[in-house]
Amino acid sequence: MNQELKELYQQVILDHNKSPRNFRKMENATQFAEGYNPLCGDHIDVYLFIEDGIVKDVSFKGEGCAISKASASMMTSILKGKTKEEAEKLFEKFHELVTGKLGDNPDVDELGKLAVFAGVQEFPVRVKCASLAWHTMMNALHGKDEKVVTE
Amino acid sequence: MNAEAEAAVAVSKNKYDVNKIREDFPILKKKVHGKNLVYLDNAATTQKPNYVIDKVNKYYTTMNANIHRGVHALSQEATEAFEGARIQIKQFINALGKNQIIFTRGTTEAINLVASSYGRANIKAGDEIIISHMEHHSNIVPWQLLCKEKNAKLRVIPINDNGELIYEEFEKLVNERTKFISIVYVSNSLGTVNDVKRVIKYAHLFNVPVLVDAAQAVNHIKVDVQDLDCDFLAFSGHKIYGPTGIGVLYGKVELLESMPPYQGGGDMISKVTFDETTFNELPHKFEAGTPDIAGAIGLGAAIEYVNKIGIENIKEHEHSLLEYATKQIADVPGLRIIGTAKEKTSVLSFVLKNIHPHDIGTFLDFEGVAIRTGHHCTQPLMQRYNIPATSRASFGMYNTKEEVDVLVNGLKKIIEVFG
Known about the structure:
heterodimer; A: Sufe protein. Chain: A; 4-stranded mixed β-sheet; B: about 425 residues; alpha/beta; 2 domains; 7-stranded mixed β-sheet; 4-stranded antiparallel β-sheet; 17 strands; globular
């Protein structure tokens, strides 16, 4: 496989695509938002259970490409136990990562496993795929009712 | 270089020389990610032969001027070339008169013209307009807007699982409230060739006019407006190896005559005072403003080129590619073809188990293969099949069996990675 393509589809992304974590509807969610990418028809529902300002549980349902599914799956894994502020900060960092604003050597400590999405910056048309779950999560976090639409 | 002569050589005596044809299309020599370009996105737009590129270039380098009314030599030359293209198109679709050929920006604008002009003047509250489940958004939304404005109703002809119109259901939909039918000739997502002649014949029993969206038809099959007896027909230049930004609306004279103008402006008038304006005759009544002159000339050239190769030869070549591809792709595990109509053009839409079309599209791009992935502007059709998107390979006159092999091998590699 071509190197650029390998960077995009790293093994961990392929794994999360195949067996996404926290892939379920949450009946007792305190917050919920729906995200949609009209370009590819990708659709995602993000559920949050927040108590005392802390993300106690997070899950998602929906349909999408490997990038969007893996991104949603890894997002749910990393957000559990984080405060609202930490979640917001991670969103910002992640967004900077996939849009290429962090350069070639992203701060891995802060991003943790999310650093595998660095390859997305070489594929401008796929940035929306990687960030759909995150935008939707932000809307859920802020209790915004409107559907997230990325294109 | 004389591309006409080259094209003629390429198809001498039943011998379709695809390599010779490929020579006429400079872009096919391009490398993508270090691989030979395999362009299989022809249903989105086709590539342009030198013959078209040269004609457009020649217009700008030797005769650029605004058309009609100019008394100087350049304007007359440009007008002659522009109106010459109209005659090419008239002959190509076998229209009776060149005044029935209206230049538009494309199929979408042509449909909007009819919906806006004919539709607003004739559709009333309670009337019904019929389309089909396989329409492109461009043949859904203009009618939806019209129905909303007039409080009319949009009815939809259902399709079967193969992606064919259910004609019996269509006939049940037609009644005294039916005031217009707009139907796609060839589905861009499925490749289905509809029996539009049958639809038109039945509609005319009820005196209902029919518009045929021929965007995906003109480059694959011989389209004859008199034989079809359609009331309107629309197509785009860029899908038949011509430039983007130019398209055609054909209409029956009595209908076009009865319709109010679509846009107001220069060229569409006969006399203007502040009290009143009288409109120009057909087709100029519907061509306000300076048109895409180079585009029209390019479209005329594209039709000349297609005529030289022969639409029947193209159809035969593409059909053999479709048959070969359908057979080869059956070997790909977990692949399901969407659109299995008996009558098809060279469109191969498919879904691969558990692998999203966008991942397929990105992966194939690195093999040099350009296909389309997504809903193809036919979201209701995707809903019908309960899928968010498909991957679509569509073949043109210059594609080869070797290119089909590159596609199929690419798909097999994807399964290794994602499977």
